[in-house]
């Protein structure tokens, strides 16, 4: 405890006689005195016990922390606590019994009291050695009734026991006066419940001090204790925290120390002994922070006597029971806070919290605290404002609550008695506002990622002997900022690493849950084969064309070919033809060879007709000879053309059959005029050989319509089918565009697509063929550049206007469920890379990673990403690759190659801020067998640490400790067998541990990953051993230049077969 305490309101001392040290704010006094009398007169019977007179006596000063309504009334009305002072409020008079010094300070209120409520202030001055008995008699005579009036009821605070000789005499005289006495505690509580602007300001300052003390002192202090494995008692932490609160400057809060105080001695609890009551205290036990331990910290501070409170629970390497309980408590606490809004009943706050617990974890309801907190202000616990299920009072703007909720006496499934029993507690100071609530202590985070720490110790792994050592990369790593440099600061890289460690834990838990759900499902995941429609050339023999010569005929109307076989013309639908070819021999004979689709042959698509007629005999191949090469060539050409047209039509029909049925577009009618954007091009194009035309994009009731002047060139995009909408103005590009990424495919012309883009070229493609170089000061050149800038700005503004109007449309209530809004790429976060075959500038948005200029487009939703692996990082590489693994493991991994190394830090920072877990590796991975292994045995994947096999640092630190670190989910070329069909491919990737790289330098497989400089050095050494040291310097330089040229062209080896871009 601090030796010197700022007692409530800093009572007037001896130097206050002149009135200089303490001055009463007369405006505040007048306003609150009027409010008090008004409340008293209006609610006399309801809250004030039908009192005609109010008598309030304050005790002598004390160093103890105490909350008295008498002191609260002093501070609320006068701005200070006046110890050993008796105040009596009557209808016509206010009596003060106090010392001379206090009376001189109170003189200033006489005029204000008279003007405000029409009462006279009477001072009864008590001499220093006088017990005040005569003055008390004078007051009692003044309030006694006249002969024709009934005896008045005197209201007093019955729960406050008299302290000191003055108050004891006053209480005896009051009780012996024969007057009726009544308790006025409820009246004072209701009077203090709604705070004015000045009170709210004081509470906000107190709350800010409390939150900063937790954030800037308590959390770093506890983290340092755990990080350095110190033995510190709860009481010691309490003392240090109290000193920090009483010296706000040290924790970065610019408040004067004389105005602040603690609400109660800070509470620190751990090691299985928990008490969630505000009266709890910090004992002399050491802070316990081993595995599955829980630490509760609660602190409260005051500013100008107004209280605030915050409590947080910190989880150290929590188990499943503790994590779930905390998540439920956090949701319940948030629900209680959200229920704090004007007009609600106080009971609804606790009921909202209970409803969450009953829904999420009904078994925890008996352990929930019996209330969700109390009102807070001049008193730490304001009576009458308890947030329990029985309080039916109505919430009003200006009320302030300490929303405190917890689970007590929970049991964790651990063998350690100090962590078996645990409790959880969360508390915040919340102000009820006109439109909701304001969490004044929000600066102290309570989210899971900020309170859950991972700090595994080796001895705790005895319960899980099968866990792969490489998965323990999180050993001795906090999930948030704990490791600091010597100067007390923490680097951005360390912060990122610690956040990534927490993301790894969360990602492994999420993947485990998802894989468990997939494993319980049925089926092989393959889509059922669509039954093809029966292709019939002729329904009956009568439809056959009349026989002509016995020669091959092509019936284009019925899409058939007629072949002469044994004297009859036999028809075949052209779709049954696989290939047709012709050739000529030396005798000038021509041959035509027709091969049909036959069930059972490789690469033959499944056909429903073949499944129906499994016992049928099929014609596989037929050949004809002819002396007329011109006729043979004509027939082959006709068959090929007809077959190509039929197959294209059937392919389009098949694609359309897989489309999800879209709702019909509702055109904008009389309600509003459609929003239009003119002269747009579309991608993908409609196709065909006709000249491309621009069109108009219109926003209607439930979707967009794009149409050109041609009747058949029209595309409807429904709002409900839009997954992401992008607007990218032209900056360094040649086009301004709107791009829609869809949930389901649509047809644009005869193309099936999920991405539709509308764009305008902002600069005309002009080529100067004059041959001469134009001057930068040429007026025509300057004018042309100005026109281009004006054109670009106008197009961008037109697009922006269209986007704003559509966003307003999407903001209407009927579209709330779609959650649509145009997203704009963040160019400053962009980077160059090769997502497909060409280099492109890839840009993140708030919800996606996109490349919208080059085709094919790249749109990756961040919510679909499982992890990102940054490959070929380090080793003095100029470029690296990014492998994006999706949550759907059946989906191919997306690779973005040849990203400049200068973009590495920016990409890491972006991934970290978007809560995407990333790993780094020195070589490329072959992802297909990895994902296949995970899906084949998800349980083993989880048991061996999940994605932590990608953690390069963990592999470095643990490779010496276990032989298992090279097994499991680290595929390597040295494995004896592989299920992947790509094992023999030249593009197979390598993944090897650090031990393998150190011990197997002579391994030829590893040489695929060496740089050309290393290969050149090894070749030179080999030449020396063979005696070829006589090569001239020119020859060696020429060989080096040749090797460098190969390196620039890109090696053709398996290690990097992908295209390189410089």
TrEMBL record:
Domain FACT complex subunit SPT16 N-terminal lobe: 24-188
Primary localization class, coarse: nucleus
Compartment list: Nucleus; Chromosome
Superkingdom of origin: Eukaryota
Residue stretches making up the FACT complex subunit SPT16 middle domain: 552-706
GO molecular function term, any single one: nucleosome binding
Family matches, as SMART domains: FACT-Spt16_Nlob, Rtt106, SPT16
Protein function: Component of the FACT complex, a general chromatin factor that acts to reorganize nucleosomes. The FACT complex is involved in multiple processes that require DNA as a template such as mRNA elongation, DNA replication and DNA repair. During transcription elongation the FACT complex acts as a histone chaperone that both destabilizes and restores nucleosomal structure.
Family from the record: Belongs to the peptidase M24 family. SPT16 subfamily.
Quaternary data: Component of the FACT complex, a stable heterodimer of SPT16 and SSRP.
Classification via PANTHER family: CDC68 RELATED, FACT COMPLEX SUBUNIT SPT16
Protein name: FACT complex subunit
């Amino acid at each position: 405890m601090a030796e010197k305490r700022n007692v409530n309101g800093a009572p007037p001392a001896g130097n206050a006689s002149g009135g200089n040290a303490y001055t009463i704010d007369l405006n505040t006094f007048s306003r609150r005195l009027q409010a008090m009398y008004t409340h008293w007169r209006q609610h006399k019977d309801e809250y004030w016990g039908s009192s005609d007179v109010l008598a309030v006596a304050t005790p002598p000063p004390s160093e103890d922390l105490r909350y008295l309504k008498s002191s609260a009334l002093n501070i609320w009305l006068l701005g200070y606590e006046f110890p050993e002072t008796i105040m009596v409020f009557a209808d016509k008079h206010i009596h003060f019994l106090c010392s001379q010094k206090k009376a001189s300070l109170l003189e200033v209120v006489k005029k204000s009291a008279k003007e405000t409520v029409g009462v006279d202030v009477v001072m009864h001055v008590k001499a220093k050695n006088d017990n005040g008995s005569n003055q008390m008699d004078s007051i009692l005579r003044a309030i006694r009734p006249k002969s024709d009036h009934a005896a008045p009821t005197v209201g007093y605070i019955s729960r406050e026991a008299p302290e000191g000789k003055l108050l004891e005499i006053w209480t005896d005289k009051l009780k012996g006066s024969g007057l009726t006495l009544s308790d006025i505690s409820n009246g004072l509580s209701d009077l203090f419940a709604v705070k004015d602007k000045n009170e709210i300001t004081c509470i906000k300052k107190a709350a800010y001090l409390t939150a900063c003390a937790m954030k800037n002192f308590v959390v770093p202090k506890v983290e340092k204790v755990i990080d350095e494995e110190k033995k510190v008692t709860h009481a010691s932490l309490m003392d240090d925290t109290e000193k920090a609160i009483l010296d706000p400057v040290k924790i970065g809060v610019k408040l004067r120390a004389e105005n602040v105080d603690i609400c109660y001695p800070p509470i620190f609890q751990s090691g299985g002994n928990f008490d969630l009551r505000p009266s709890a205290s910090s004992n002399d036990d050491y802070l316990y922070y081993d595995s599955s331990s829980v630490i509760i910290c609660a602190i409260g501070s005051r500013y100008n006597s107004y209280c605030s409170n915050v409590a947080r629970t910190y989880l150290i390497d929590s188990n499943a029971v503790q994590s779930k309980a905390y998540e439920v408590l956090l949701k319940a606490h948030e629900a209680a806070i959200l229920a704090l809004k004007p007009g609600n009943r106080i009971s609804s706050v606790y009921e909202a919290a209970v409803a969450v617990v009953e829904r999420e974890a009904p078994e925890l309801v008996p352990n929930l605290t019996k209330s969700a907190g109390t009102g807070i202000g001049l008193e730490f616990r304001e009576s009458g404002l308890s947030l329990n299920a029985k309080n039916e009072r109505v919430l009003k703007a200006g009320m302030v609550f300490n929303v405190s909720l917890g689970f007590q006496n929970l049991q964790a499934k651990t063998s350690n008695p100090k962590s078996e029993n645990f409790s959880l507690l969360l508390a915040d100071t919340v102000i009820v506002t006109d439109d909701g609530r304001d969490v004044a202590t929000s600066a102290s985070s309570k989210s899971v990622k900020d309170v859950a720490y991972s700090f595994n110790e080796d001895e705790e792994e005895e319960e899980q002997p099968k866990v792969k050592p490489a998965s323990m990369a999180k050993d001795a790593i906090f999930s948030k900022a704990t490791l600091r440099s010597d100067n007390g600061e923490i680097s951005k890289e360390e912060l990122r690493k610690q956040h990534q460690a927490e993301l790894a834990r969360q990602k492994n838990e999420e993947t485990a849950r998802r894989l468990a759900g997939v494993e319980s499902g049925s089926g092989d995941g393959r889509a059922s084969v669509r039954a093809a429609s029966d292709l019939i050339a002729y329904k009956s023999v009568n439809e056959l064309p009349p026989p002509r010569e016995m020669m091959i005929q092509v019936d284009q109307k019925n899409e058939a070919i007629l072949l002469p076989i044994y004297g009859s013309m036999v028809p075949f639908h052209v779709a049954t033809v696989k290939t047709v070819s012709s050739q000529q021999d030396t005798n000038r004979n021509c041959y035509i060879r027709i091969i049909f689709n036959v069930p059972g042959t490789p690469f033959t698509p499944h056909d429903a007709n073949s499944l129906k007629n499994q016992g049928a005999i099929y014609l596989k191949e037929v050949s004809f000879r002819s002396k007329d090469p011109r006729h043979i060539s004509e027939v082959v050409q006709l068959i090929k053309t007809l077959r190509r047209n039929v197959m294209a039509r059937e392919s389009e029909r098949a694609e359309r059959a897989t489309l999800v049925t879209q709702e019909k577009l509702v055109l904008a009618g009389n309600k509003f005029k459609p929003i239009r954007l003119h002269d747009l091009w579309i991608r993908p194009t409609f196709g065909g050989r006709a000249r491309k035309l621009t069109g108009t994009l219109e926003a209607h009731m439930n979707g967009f319509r794009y149409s050109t002047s041609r009747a058949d060139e029209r595309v409807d995009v429904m709002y409900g089918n839009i997954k992401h909408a992008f607007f990218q103005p032209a900056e360094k590009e040649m086009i301004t565009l709107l791009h829609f990424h869809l949930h389901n495919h649509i047809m644009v012309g005869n193309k099936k697509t999920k991405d539709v883009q509308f764009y305008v070229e902002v600069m005309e493609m002009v080529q100067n063929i004059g041959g001469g170089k134009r001057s930068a000061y040429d007026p025509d050149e300057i004018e042309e550049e100005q026109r281009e800038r004006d054109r670009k700005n106008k197009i961008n503004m037109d697009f922006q206007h269209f986007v704003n109007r559509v966003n307003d449309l999407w903001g209407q209530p009927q579209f709330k469920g779609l959650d649509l809004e145009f997203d704009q790429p963040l160019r400053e976060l962009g980077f160059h890379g090769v997502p497909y075959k060409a280099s492109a500038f890839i840009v993140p948005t708030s919800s996606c990673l996109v490349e919208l200029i080059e085709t094919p487009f790249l749109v990756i939703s961040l919510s679909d990403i499982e992890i990102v692996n940054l490959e070929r990082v380090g080793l003095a590489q100029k470029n690296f690759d990014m492998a994006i693994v999706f949550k759907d493991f059946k989906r191919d991994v997306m690779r973005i190659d040849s990203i400049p190394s200068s973009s590495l830090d920016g990409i890491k920072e972006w991934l970290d801020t978007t809560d995407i877990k990333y790993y780094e590796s020195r070589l490329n991975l072959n992802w297909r067998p990895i994902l296949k292994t995970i899906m084949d045995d998800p349980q083993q994947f989880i048991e061996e640490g999940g994605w932590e096999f990608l953690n390069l640092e963990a592999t470095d630190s643990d490779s010496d400790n276990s032989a298992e670190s090279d097994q499991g989910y680290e595929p390597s070329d040295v494995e004896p067998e592989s299920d992947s069909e790509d094992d023999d491919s030249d593009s197979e990737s390598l993944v090897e541990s650090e031990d393998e790289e150190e011990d197997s330098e002579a391994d030829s497989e590893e040489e695929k990953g060496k740089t050309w400089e290393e290969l050149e050095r090894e070749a030179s050494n080999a030449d020396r051993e063979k005696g070829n040291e006589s090569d001239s310097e020119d020859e060696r330089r020429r060989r080096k230049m040749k090797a460098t040229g190969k390196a620039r062209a890109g090696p053709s080896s398996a290690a990097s077969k992908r295209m390189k871009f410089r």
